[in-house]
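Before a colleague's protein record goes any further, I have to sign it off. Alongside the sequence sits a line of tokens, each denoting a local backbone shape. I want your independent view on whether this chain really folds as the tokens say. Where you disagree with what is written, explain briefly why. This is what I was given:
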Amino acid sequence: MIRFWLFLHLLGFTMWLGGGIAAMVAGVAGKREDRGGVGAITRAQASVHKAVIAPGALLAVLSGLILTFSVAGRTGELVGFSLWLVIMQGAGLLGALLVLLIGLPTAAKLSRLDPTGPGAAYFDELRTRQKIVSSVSGTLALLALVAGALVR
């Protein structure tokens, strides 16, 4: 059963990071577009957030919690976990919370706004917020990945 949860953990993490990289590449490519094209790109990024990044982050955290409790149940204690495991758990949880509580709602708002209309200033403000949150949560996800690789 542990292998099943580990598979789900790795699947979620892959979806989270892969979707984040895809959204980042689309955003960088969008710098060459006019304002109308930027709207299409943000709608595509919102779809990636909704269908890949957020479910991946949620799956990684939930399966990680189950794996943690499973290990604690076998050993009878939470003490004895390595520093790298704690870093992986902390960075992963914090990064996922950023994705789910700030990134996903911001992406949804961006997808409904017209970048050329009267809400253009708000659109730009939300894009800046999305860039910052995505960068921070992506960095935390990469830190979790590195820490996870160094657990053993």
In short: Residues 2-149 form one domain. The chain has one domain: 2-149.
